[in-house]
Write a structure and sequence with these properties.
This protein is an alpha/beta fold. It folds into four domains: 205 residues, Rossmann fold (3-Layer(aba) Sandwich), CATH 3.40.50.2300; 159 residues, 3-Layer(aba) Sandwich (Rossmann fold); 51 residues, no CATH class; 263 residues, Rhodopsin 7-helix transmembrane proteins (Rhopdopsin 7-helix transmembrane proteins, Up-down Bundle), CATH 1.20.1070. The termini are far apart.
Amino acid sequence: MSLLALSLSLYTANVITLTYNSVSSFASTSGGTICTLQNSFEPSFVAQGDFVIGGIFPLHYNQEMPDLNCTYRPPPVNCRFDPRAFRWAQTMRLAVEEINQSPELLPNYTLGYKIFDSCAYPLTGQRAALAVLNGLSEDESPMCSSSSPLLAMIGESGSAQSIVVSRILQPFRIPMISYFSSCACLTDRRKYPTFFRVIPNDDYQVRAIAQLLVRFNWTWVGLVRGDHEYGRFAVQGLLRELQGTKVCVAYQEMIPLLYNQQRALEIISLAKVVVVFSAEGEMTPFLRDYMAQNITGIQWVASEAWVTASVFTGSEYYPYLGGTIGFGIRKGHISRLSDYLQTVNPQKYPNNPLVQELWEALYGCSPSLSSASQIPLCSGQESLLEQHSAYMNTSSPRVAYNAYKAVYAVAHSLHNLLRCQPGSGPFENRSCAQTNSVSPWQLQHYLQEVKFTIAGEEVNFDLKGDSIPYYDVINWQRGTSGNIDFINVGLFDGTKPAGDELVIEDDRIMWAGHQSEVPVSVCSASCPSGSRKAVRRGEPVCCFDCVPCDSGKISNETNSIECTFCPENFWSNEDRTSCIPKKVEFLAYDSLGITLTVISAVGACFTIAVFAVFFHHRNTAIVRVNNSELSFFILFALMLCFLCSLVFIGEPTVWSCMLRHTAFSITFSLCISCILGKTLVVLAAFTATRPGNNIMKWLGPKQQRTIIFSCTLFQVVICAAWLIDAPPYPSRNTKYERSKIILECSVGSSLAFWCVLGYIGLQACLCFVLAFLARKLPGNFNEAKFITFSMLIFCAVWLAFIPAYISSPGNYADAVESFAILASSFGLLFCLFAPKCYIILLKPEKNTKQHLMGKEKK
């Protein structure tokens, strides 16, 4: 029984998926069971040896998946030749030849190989895996009488293909070393116990891409993947890495396996940065439609699967793919590769159709008359030159170098196995493997522990079959010939501490659109300083509106999530970018303060002028009749009232605050006391004219002074108690207007403050009542009427003052109080003294006792 038949019997689960790829079938006849080939699938290159390894390479790549509806025989997959993958296969052949010629590695033994084409297609990869399990030829398969003719497999390129091939090889415990399958899903040792790889898994790649996106502040990116495990796991890993960063995913799309142009056009987005996890075969039709739409300026971020794909290096791709950046497999050095590739030509391999296809791809001509393609003939002796970069690019081998390392890993493992000393082996009873019958599982044991150095690089595998994670940062730039060159602009070293893995030379990068400046890809422009981000409802956190900070808050950096409060004595500037000291306000000598000062000075001057007039005419009737002594007392008190308003102007201090209210209350109490005394005298004078009334003896000059002193003393006592218990003090008011500090005088004791005002009000009311009672007394000059008017104005001013004072803060409260003092002082001055001055200065003929008493002869 061939190994193929054994695989079909032992691994029933795979039979279902391999129906269309079956290479043999069984038919019952009367003579027994006959095995006949249904389709031939011969290897591309074969070499015999003591130990045989297999190789699967995507020598072709599929552009469109065939329609598999299982109602008719499936057509062949439409594949195109890939010179780049053909170079990988030749690199494997070169490595085997070098090992066979080496006197130090596997001396006295040779390696053989069978290399198959997978067409970068999982189902074709299945077919290749089944074919490679048989002998060197399908129709001459050996019987299963000894160990497997295949010790290890070098392959596959795509992760989807590797998953299929690994599952087929798993029942036979044949180790598989992939040179280009990076899906993180393949690290699961329960599902893929025989899988190894010399390429880092995508956990490191997605970490590198996430760091790249964060580094260049690309917060709005699109994700495009192929319809396979590689793309699915890579996108999942990238989303996991982007959690906690500022990067948002604008959309996630998939290039359909059954390619559909309409669906592909829906994927094409105007997002500035697009990350693509796909193979070059899937990308080709997608990019073809993308270019047909003439969309440029997209910054592509490529995965290692296509970042060094030579199929896209043509000059026609540069306007659309120029500036692409991504992470490629770390390049190596293979000294004999260039010379070896040049030995492959149609003359040396006249019957190999792959070599003919190579010539057709490189030269556009056919070296064989049997070619079905309608292209010109050529000799097949043409020289392979450097411009044939798709095949001859050996200056920086990457995937080819991985294939090279994979072969050497098998050789070193086999070498260690063959050097095993009996009695010190790793297997049961410390035995070693039999050199004439080495089993694949025995080789896998040594493969897991192999460690060797090649071209200065250490190669080994961890417990999950992964290798050391290194990536080169690749940038697509225009070459001298107009084609795309892959320029190394950085390195990602997964062995370094977190945050130090990625090193990029920014100044060497050429971005999309042939720009030297980093492209911007954001959903919303950055919020400038002085504003904060407000996330839009139902949209990702990268989509936001910029809201200016409220007064008293600032943000001094871009994209602030919230604005911060300024300290207590600081406030935000107009731009809301910094905290500045709050403006300190008080009733200063500005326009308002100067105005009040001038009014106060004018009032004091008027008072002095009236005093001078009265003093000069002190012997005239009007001055003497109206009690000149009390008039001088009142003028003195009024002058102090005008001057005490000046104490309210200027920065409040401890002494000025105490002086403000006490000086105001005492001077006004003195003034009202004098007016009260005058009112009593007027009232008593007219009452004394009645027979038997001797009231004037109780209101002589001495008694008048006593009344004034007593009434004023009572106010002094209240003020003294106020100053002793809870005196007024300067305070900083930040509550009324948060943007300012208002310096004001706190009254200390509100009770004392209102007692002071209440006492003055009580004096004024008493004076008003008495004057009102005496308003109709006989005489041409009844001073009681003027006292009544003066007290009416006084009370009106201070009744209006109370609500105005309570509702006005800081300097305005001081201005209101100062204005009330001046207004009431002017009211008293003009009501009491203006009529007298008018008679004295302008009507001297009326300044007689007879006229004032109403006894002037008609």
